[in-house]
Amino acid sequence: xxAAVGLVAAxxxxxxxxxxRRELDERTAPLAGLVAAFIFAVQMLNFPVAAGTSGHLLGGxxxxxxxxxxxxxxxxxxxxxxxxxxxxxxxxxxxxxxITDMAIVTTVVAYALFRGLVKVLPRTRRSVTAxxxxxxxxxxxxxAVVFTLLYAIGGTTDVSIGKVATAMVGVHVLIGIGEAVIxxxxxGAVVAVRPDLVYGARGLxxxxxxxxxxxxxxxxxxxxxxxxxxxxxxxxxxxxxxxLAASLVLAGFVSFYASANxxxxxxxxxxxxxxxxxxxxxxxxxxxxxxxxKDVDDARLSGGLAGVIGVGVTVVAGTGxxxxxxxxxxxxxxxxxxxxxxxx
Length: 344
Prior knowledge:
Elements: H1 2-23, H2 29-43, E1 47-50, E2 53-55, H3 60-67, H4 69-86, H5 95-120, H6 125-154, H7 161-193, E3 209-212, E4 215-218, H8 237-252, H9 264-272, H10 299-337
Antiparallel strand pairs: 1-2, 3-4
């Protein structure tokens, strides 16, 4: 099952690489790597959701709304890859399942619901924030449902699927509330200062109003005219620096105060006996395993350094991937517009 879902995940990532070429424009491209690093940082902040259980951000909804659904899948996939190969967080053979559940399902469900909501809600920034909340909330239990289906097919322990489904969906509805709050606050904050950088908020600028015969009417759209971007919004540097600083503080300092309780899946696995055949991670002895720096005895310093390293590696890896995709788009555009000759 892991192998089959791994192929599905690989195919989805390949499709996302092609789709991201259309999304990674001059506004999205500089921030995509930062979004991946921010998601990595916030995922370290487990929050309590019930007795003995914690939850953490999945990030699919947040990434899709900020930088687009295809790029969002890539952002979360980069995070999961970094966690698996550097921090021994997430099995290597389960990477395809994790990408499918946490990157693909959450992004597709969240963005589809988000787009549906913004079409029927008033075209305002508050509507974008509200739609972000609902989309993120629904995406988490949707991921739990898909996991349950995968477990029903490939599970290797004798546990009632009904019990797994009830436990998984129940706890992940609570986690979804936390996901929704984090997503809405983040999207709302960016929309408030730089709506032009939020992929899901494009087209919200108010139309020019003209007074005709004493009445205000919308000015007609100019065919082919690009969406206006405020002059003060042309530079991404301040937003990028602020976002990176926030990510470093969250991962390097705030993460020390995160809940130590097992997350939703771990708790359900323990309670239902699904972890009976769990094995040590293949790189459990790596220098950064379990989000700590090897040979650093101080827990606060060890975890903080690991978090800072993780943010740095993720932003570099993510930026590299998105730069390559963006460059490929530019090359395709150049090829499409270059003159071609014919010979007889």
